[in-house]
Amino acid sequence: MSDYLSIWTVDMVLVLIISIFCAGIVIPQILLIAFRFNMFDTPDARKVHHGAVPRLGGLAFMPVVFFSVALVLGIKLFIGNFDFMATVGSDLRAIAFSVCAVMVTYVVGMADDLIGVRYRNKFVTQILCALMLVGGRLWLGDLWGLLWINTLTPWIGVPLTVLVVVFITNSINLIDGIDGLASGLSSIVMIVYAFSFLMLGEYLCALIAIATFGVLVPFFYYNVFGDPQKMHKIFMGDTGSLTIGMLICILGLKLVNPLHLIEANWVPNRLVIVFSPLLVPCFDVVRVYLYRVRHHRNPFMPDKNHIHHKLLALGLPQRSAMVTIVLTSLFFTAANILLSLVININWILLIDIVVWTLGNIWLAKAIRRRRLLSEK
């Protein structure tokens, strides 16, 4: 078993290197195309960036991830290593529907970046993609003790899966408000998922997760450290955020679905592993949604009330705000996984809600104090 794990660890390193290398080649080419055809994300009252910046970085995500994983698997077949075929064969239905869901999401995101797509149409597409995942038998059949519920019937699990897929996909999309935030938070998700799948023996999923992390590394560099004056800065756009969101949904459903997992001596609660890295974007969307409803605003119309907007209002520079939020996500992830070894998942969720709520109350008071001092 240790030799088998070592082989797949080498494969994960290889797919990571290929993904980083390919993204490092593709993203600069996308930048050249964007500047040549004037495809920019222009600033407005809601956005925090200055100057015209291309928003087509997400075009690299799906092709690079699929190519990197396919190339590594092809190399394994070429050298006569067929060990992974048994897993792939048993999951062929899930793989087929998942690829379709990612491709549809990618195309819709690209259309939104190029010509614009109404949010209602995006919701319909996301629901259809969620149903594709259900068709691949990727649905919430077990809540792993959340609300003291374990097994779910399809009548409850399928609609809940659709709701969760739409919610998480849009959470990643909506948190993409400042440089490096969506890619930083998504990188945490992918690293946690890749390690979990490796420990559970689901090596194909581990490869997909680490390949996705690999494509985010060069994007993060261009997004955070790129200079727009030198045509080196790029945004992921809806193509990137929606595609990453769908990949997270697929891997998350795979991780908590006992029908698709090899039995393993895995102590932490799997649902805790899945939702902990997503806690910041998901909790933020819920808070913003409730805020808009409470103030009689359209909950689907964008504004400047997300967590990154609050940190900017507190006076933090963009990069400091991004680092603060990413570190907060790391804290929640590590704390939740460790707590899941000793306490019930429901207590963990309650602690998360209390800590998040108190943190937002403190943040709101600090912003008010700063505004009062600036008015004096």
Short description:
The chain is mostly helical and 376 residues long. The protein is built from 14 helices and no strands.
Helix and strand arrangement:
Elements: H1 2-36, H2 61-78, H3 85-90, H4 92-114, H5 119-135, H6 154-174, H7 181-200, H8 203-225, H9 237-256, H10 270-275, H11 279-294, H12 307-313, H13 318-339, H14 345-375
Helix pairs in contact: 1-2, 1-8, 2-8, 4-5, 4-9, 5-6, 6-9, 6-11, 7-8, 7-9, 7-13, 12-13, 12-14
Structural overview:
There is one protein chain. This protein has 376 residues and is mainly alpha-helical. The protein has a domain at 2-264. The chain is built from 14 helices and no strands. The model has no long low-confidence stretch (mean pLDDT 89).
Keywords:
mainly alpha, 376 residues, 14 helices
